[in-house]
Amino acid sequence: MSSQPVAVGIRWIERRDGRDLAVKIGGSQGIGSVILKKDDSRIISGVSITEFPLWPDDRGYFLEVARLDAEEPEPIAAGFGRAQVSATLSYPGTIKAIHYHCNQTDIWVPVRGMFQVFLYDLRVESPTFGHTNTLYIGSLRPWKVRIPPGVGHGYKVVGTDSAMLVYVTNRFYDPKDEGRISHKDPDINYDWELQYK
């Protein structure tokens, strides 16, 4: 008996700007691969993670969001010729998800509180199509994350404090570039509940 590859059912989300975006049908409930190391082999293709510099002293702290110099940008900001810097404050338990971009790249820098970050690869041509990553980042894990176009993303604020996310994008905000999927999508089937263990 020869082993034949099993065809994966997909549900098309969108075909735009040269990108075919879809979800795998029938995802099992869970949170996917929990990423605990910046170089974990299970990180979705094109996503990159780095620590952000943080300098505390007796007055508080200073943190560096991104170096965007056109000649020598830090690796996570490579290709950001034009940029917009924005911030959002969310209350404990808030879920903002799922959205994606066809052209925009995001760099997320959690400057206050803790986030459960959700990532899902919608790009049909990607080697990690249909993979889910979860990252717990913020005050206890000072990571910044680069999210490429075609990767669905969102977050839940975890803990008892409000959380602030500063994000840098390589394009000015354009609502036509953004797509949305329900945070309860039955095929992605992400578990937003507290993970009892």
- Strand percentage lies at 35-45%
Count helical runs. Answer: 0
N→C terminal distance? 41 Å
**Largest sheet composition:** 6 strands, mixed
Low-pLDDT parts are 1-6
Description of the structure:
Mean pLDDT is 92; it is low at 1-6. The protein contains no helices and 15 strands. The chain has strands spanning 10-16, 19-24, 33-34, 48-51, 54-57, 60-63, 84-90, 95-101, 106-112, 114-121, 132-138, 143-147, 151-158, 163-169, 178-180. By secondary structure, it is an all-beta fold. The strands form four sheets. A six-stranded mixed β-sheet has the order 3-11-10-13-8-15, with no helix packed on it. Strands 4-12-9-14-7 form a five-stranded antiparallel β-sheet, with no helix packed on it.
Essential attributes:
197 residues; mainly beta; 6-stranded mixed β-sheet; 5-stranded antiparallel β-sheet; 44% strand; globular; disordered N terminus
SSE topology sketch:
Blueprint: E1 10-16, E2 19-24, E3 33-34, E4 48-51, E5 54-57, E6 60-63, E7 84-90, E8 95-101, E9 106-112, E10 114-121, E11 132-138, E12 143-147, E13 151-158, E14 163-169, E15 178-180
Parallel strand pairs: 3-11
Antiparallel strand pairs: 1-2, 4-12, 5-6, 7-14, 8-13, 8-15, 9-12, 9-14, 10-11, 10-13
